[in-house]
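Message: I would value a second opinion on how I read folds in token form. Give me a protein, with the fold worked out from its sequence. Write it directly below this note and I will take it from there.
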Amino acid sequence: MSDRRNHQPGFATRAIHHGYDPATAQGALTPPIYMTSTYAFGSTEEGAALFRGEREGYIYGRTKNPTQALLETRLADLEGAEAGLALASGMAAISATLQTLCQTGDRIVADRILYGNTFALLSKGLSRFGITTEFVDFTDTAAVAAALSTPAKLVYFETPANPNLRVIDIARISTLARAAGALTVVDNTFATPVLQRPIALGADLVVHSATKYLGGHGDLLAGAVVGPAALVAEIRGHGLRFLTGATISPLTAFLILRGLKTLELRLAQHVRSATAVAQLLQDHPAVARLYYPGLPSHPQHAVAARQMSGGGGLVAFELKGGFEAGVGFMDRVTLAHRAVSLGDAETLVQHPASMTHAAYGADERARHGIPDGLVRLSIGLETTEDILDDIVAALGGH
């Protein structure tokens, strides 16, 4: 057996152990939950030093809590980043990051396929404060390079993207952004650090909706951003402390820490079942088009194979009957639940045109590759054969 003592521990080992020693908490195997809003100082000078930033410690629960700090340390380690910040939701992480880094007159270049609320933030929210966004097809690197010929503060994209699972070349886009003097922000919610690590591919910051796979059980709301320590400290000091005040609760931080312990195991099963579902759907007569990065039929499969270690737990497909077919499929499933979100133990099905991407107008959806017949499945942890049976029955038994 090889000597691994000088090797970095594996992903699951770090997800379970990193950043915590039971000896620091009276031997408690599970890290304690610090349910406190404020912290006492040993002396006036100690408190003053904390406020001046000359000493590490805790002042007030809005910006930092020991349970939160452990989660942030662990998430940063798993993503290969210097530091992390946990917040109350994925949108809190995104808005705190963008509001901290951008100001009036700044410009963002973003991929045209985004989660509906992220699209609304960029197209309608930040524009109220004089921050403009140009939406570009990030699978077309020439178009991205052209957009970056005009100064931009940052580029923003998801990969795989919500809801049609387009895959963006993180290394290529990050190189273009860096050459143009822009920061690269990547939403890694769908892949998680189990399957993809954007920092290693050149991204500056990574954001997550921890509500999804990181928590994994559909029982919490949370978000996170990881990246260079200086940038993360700025987002904590501005984006969290007074721009949003979107503080994560200690109990929620604890639940995500618990979820991380099984993340690698859960993703393996999500991917196994999602691959089986995708293989079923790719030749089904009712399906016009399938989107699953793990299959060669995906338009960006070659990029996915380079930067991801699996196809992920989501499958998107377009039904030939359009809007009515999508709604009909959703109404016929019996095992899967009609619900937004993803990454839960339960299989979830949603119709982007009427649900998560209703913020896009009909013309915008058509222009951005979100057809009315598109259905998105978040494949859960049920027995694979049961998931397949449910889908076949909902498709009409063809």
Q: What stands out?
A: Residues 11-261 form a domain with the Aspartate Aminotransferase; domain 2 fold (CATH 3.40.640.10). The first strand starts at residue 83 and ends at 87. The chain has a mean pLDDT of 94. The CA atoms of residues 351 and 375 lie 5 Å apart.
